[in-house]
């Protein structure tokens, strides 16, 4: 079982707050903090042991991807749509690929808020 951890981007101060910055936060507190963009820990670490969060930009031997957690779908060769929840990376061209726990070549190179230039 993975730890449930978050970090947050402060839209007003333009800075990232890590998990250890927060005390216990209730759902009510999340709703009141609309100046923060919350990102969940994926449960995976990059090749240097750094925790991977939603919104991270990662690089592997193929290229850069933005880390997302959520629903995705694909249509198989028979025309059936398959929807599932998981951890995936979005390429610059909008294509998706899924991460696995054995992806040992992933390296975090930044995140979408502090390093938007990496998306160009």
Tell me the layout of helices and strands.
Blueprint: E1 6-10, E2 15-17, H1 27-32, E3 36-45, E4 51-53, E5 56-59, E6 64-75, E7 81-90, E8 96-98, E9 107-111
Antiparallel strand pairs: 1-2, 1-3, 3-4, 5-6, 5-9, 6-7, 7-8
Task: Explain what the structure shows.
Helix content is 5%, strand content 46%. It has 1 helix and 9 strands. The strands form 2 sheets. It has a 5-stranded antiparallel sheet, with no helix packed on it. Strands 2-1-3-4 form a 4-stranded antiparallel sheet, with no helix packed on it. Strand 3 and strand 4 form a beta hairpin. The longest helix is centred in the first third of the chain and has 6 residues, at 27-32. It is globular, with a radius of gyration of 16 Å.
Protein traits:
5% helix, SH3 type barrels, mainly beta, five-stranded antiparallel sheet, 120 residues
**Strand content range:** over 45%
SSE arrangement, N to C:
EEHEEEEEEE
Q: So what's the overall shape?
A: globular
Whole-number mean pLDDT: 78
Structural class by helix and strand composition: mainly beta
What is the topology, as strand order, of the major beta sheet?
A: 8-7-6-5-9
**Sheet of most strands:** 5 strands, antiparallel
Count, helices: 1
By CATH reckoning, the class would read Mainly Beta
The total domain count is: 1
Poorly predicted residue ranges:
none
Distance between the termini: 36 Å
The CATH superfamily bears the name YopX-like domains
Number of strand elements: 9
Fold-level CATH name? SH3 type barrels
Helix content: under 10%
